[in-house]
Amino acid sequence: MTRGISTLVPMRTKGSIVATLAVAFLAAACSSGSSGPGPAIVVEKSSAIAQGDAICKQMVRDVTDIVAAFTSSHPTMKDAEARDFLVNTLLPRIDRGVGDLHRIGEPTKDRVGFDDALRSLDKDLSALKQAVGIDPVKVVSAKVAIFNKSAKLFTDYGFKECGKA
């Protein structure tokens, strides 16, 4: 009787090992095998400019409208009100616009100029966020400059709307 039980244990172990390996094999076969981002989207330069200009035009219009609505309803704003508005309303809108520009894809021609403009825009956005921490009322009261140092890079690349404001 001891002999019958001892032969069942190795068979169950072999069966569970085979089942585990089968599940692991299926899981590996069904997964994409890549944990990083997919390949970059490639677009024509003219398409990247057209898409970017549409994004920038809408973003600048939204920023202007949002700031005008806030300043008209807060003629004597306090630091806390201005900071709350900037952090919770205006900066998320600008972040979304900048993110949309990054998601356009890589132009087929002159990628370096496009990438330089986007990197410079990222720096402009960081500088704007730092200014919010220093003097939020001044940021709201002045014209909000989205494209500060990046403006020239965008216009040199061929954009008409990006870099305008």
Structure write-up:
By secondary structure, this protein is mostly helical. Helix content is 72%, strand content 2%. The protein has helices at 2-30, 45-73, 79-102, 111-134, 136-141, 151-157; strands spanning 42-43, 106-107. Strands 1-2 form a two-stranded parallel sheet. Helix 4 (111-134) runs antiparallel to helix 6 (151-157). The chain starts with a helix and ends in an 8-residue tail after the last helix. Mean pLDDT is 83; it is low at 18-36.
What are the defining features of this structure?
single chain; elongated; mainly alpha; 165 residues
State the gist of this model:
This protein is mainly alpha-helical and 165 residues long. The protein is 72% helix and 2% strand.
Describe the secondary-structure layout.
Blueprint: H1 2-30, E1 42-43, H2 45-73, H3 79-102, E2 106-107, H4 111-134, H5 136-141, H6 151-157
Helix pairs in contact: 2-3, 3-4, 4-6
